[in-house]
Amino acid sequence: MKRLLLIIVFSISIISVKAQTIRNTKTSSQIWAGYFNQSRISKRWGFWLDAQIRTTDNFVDSMVSLVFRPGLTYYFNDNNRATAGYAYMIHYPANNPGTISQPEHRFWQQFQWSINTKKARITQRIRLEERFRRKFESANELANDYYFNYRIRLNLAMQIPLLGNAYKKGSLSALISDEVMINFGKQVVYNYFDQNRFLVGFNYYTDDNNTIFLGYMHQFQQLATGNDYLQMNVIRLIYTQNLDFRKSENRQ
After folding, report:
1. pLDDT tens digits, 30-79
2. Would you say 35 and 58 are in contact if contact means Cβ atoms under 8 Å apart?
3. Domain at 2-18+25-242, CATH from 2.40.260.10, 2.120.10.80, 3.90.1170.40, 2.40.160.40
4. What is the pTM of this model?
């Protein structure tokens, strides 16, 4: 399973790079700031929460989207977990000539596993999403109906300690990841390949459970028309908490 995921991510990443030579590609610069929380409340259960704000046009002149994504996590063990949740998103107009924003309701399920060694921490994740996005009646009016499609996301990340006691207070780590997203469903016609996100940056541990990440992400996305693409240069700033509310005697 792990090798299959590596092969899929690598293969589709090559396809996305080749696709970037196609014309009709627009470029933008964005900032994504977010809060992430993966906390454990018992041996088997925990929760997920992330909230993000995304801006564009000279990085900060306009809004792109808002994200609020809670979830419930089941822990098979310390390194393997499954999460299911709901996300609410607001997409602000970019190519749409109107001024109205587009809400999206998204249900999601994922499986995440990690490998820890002395030299690196590797995390792999596969996520399935069911996306309901409001249709437009006109440029400035939402319809009552929804666009619907499934999307599968394959993510591979590696964190490499650089300074200090690895993953402890005051330490610094390099992080590199790649995520490939594939659309499917009856309403998907041209853009089965949705996007690829390549991320690189640094994690600073303010303490053993809290990190601040600053990095650069290159995002390449195919639009629903099939021959139009977006290429985004993104600065990402993320505050992450990984909390454990179990009593010490229950952590074995």
Report:
1. 999 999 999 999 999 999 999 999 998 877 788 899 999 999 999 999 99
2. no
3. 2.40.160.40
4. 0.86
